[in-house]
């Protein structure tokens, strides 16, 4: 089956490309690096010709509010137009658990716009809502770093390894479209404070971690359960300790 993965060079994209190729599918890893730009439309018609499935795993290079909204609107609009013109049978996209609860954040306004375009497109689809990737942890810790201590949102998190996400994306892509959203999460739920303390300890950083309801995530204040799924999520297999050990070994 011909499958186009937009964002096929990214964190989840490259792992999903590898899984579907080793299962014998004809996979196009589309991205600006490979001459396909879903925002401008460059190279898209050729890439999508004859495809049965499109998986959108792209992300905006800029997370500034207007830029990220423009990225997801233009990119998704162009992908849907190409899917419609080529009678694509399944459009799969990756979004985030709690997107509708995070509308004080420009990034999540853009993700909701992406989801709405897909739902209204008339193309059979599956949206996968994932919790935060473990690989995002270092970036998040930097955003909450006050120098002498780290102050994080007072909320829960249930992070997932990118390998578990890619397994689901590859499986969903070859299954029938749900015309709906499924949710995935990691195997363990933590207060963000406990997870960040564990991460800092594992990296040899002895600083204190505090929690505050005033500290935002991606520009939005959190309720306790904003980032976790109450929608019967499918759980990944890789726990924090296993993920961290594999990452340390690779480094
Ligand atoms: N981070 C999280 O915790 C989290 C959680 C749930 C869901 N998600 C969602 O997961 C998705 C994938 O995230 P990721 O971290 O795997 O992304 P990533 O590693 O940042 O990769 C982004 C990909 O998008 C491609 N791209 C950028 N501009 C493009 C354009 N104009 N046309 C086509 N492709 C373009 C990049 O291509 P180049 O390499 O050529 O630049 C790259 O392949 C995102 O939509 C994100 O919202 C993230």
Salient structural properties:
251 residues; alpha/beta; Rossmann fold; seven-stranded parallel sheet; two-stranded parallel ribbon; 8 helices; globular; binds NADP nicotinamide-adenine-dinucleotide phosphate
Explain what the structure shows.
The protein is α/β, with parallel strands linked by helices and 251 residues long. The chain has a single domain, classed as Rossmann fold, CATH 3.40.50.720. It has eight helices and eleven strands. The chain has helices at 11-22, 44-48, 65-85, 106-120, 137-143, 162-174, 192-202, 240-250, and strands spanning 2-6, 26-30, 53-56, 90-96, 125-130, 149-153, 156-157, 180-185, 190-191, 208-212, 234-235. Strands 2-1-3-4-5-8-11 form a seven-stranded parallel sheet, with helices on both faces. A two-stranded parallel sheet has the order 6-10. It has a two-stranded antiparallel ribbon with strand order 7-9. The longest helix has 21 residues, at 65-85. It is globular and about 55 Å long. The model has no long low-confidence stretch (mean pLDDT 97).
């Amino acid at each position: 089956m011909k499958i186009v993965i937009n964002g096929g060079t990214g964190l989840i994209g490259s792992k999903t490309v590898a899984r579907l190729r080793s299962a014998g599918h004809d996979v196009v890893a589309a991205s600006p690096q490979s001459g396909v730009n879903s925002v401008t439309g460059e190279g898209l018609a050729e890439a999508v010709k004859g495809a049965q499935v499109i998986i959108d795993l792209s992300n905006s290079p800029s997370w500034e509010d207007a830029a990220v909204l423009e990225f997801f609107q233009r990119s998704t609009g162009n992908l849907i137009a190409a899917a419609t013109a080529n009678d694509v049978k399944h459009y799969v996209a990756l979004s985030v658990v709690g997107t509708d609860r995070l509308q004080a954040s420009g990034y999540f306004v853009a993700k909701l716009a992406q989801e709405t375009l897909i739902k209204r497109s008339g193309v059979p689809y599956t949206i996968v809502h994932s919790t935060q990737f473990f690989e995002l942890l270092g970036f998040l810790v930097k955003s909450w770093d006050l120098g002498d201590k780290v102050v994080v949102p007072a909320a829960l998190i249930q992070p997932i390894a990118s390998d578990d996400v890619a397994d689901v994306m590859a499986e969903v892509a070859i299954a029938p479209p749900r015309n709906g959203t499924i949710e995935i999460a990691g195997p363990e739920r933590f207060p963000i404070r406990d997870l960040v303390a564990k991460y800092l300890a594992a990296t040899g950083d002895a600083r204190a971690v505090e929690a505050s309801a005033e500290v935002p995530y991606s520009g939005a204040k959190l309720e306790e359960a904003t980032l976790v799924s109450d929608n019967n999520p499918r759980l990944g297999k890789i726990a924090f300790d296993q993920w961290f050990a594999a990452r340390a070994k690779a480094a």
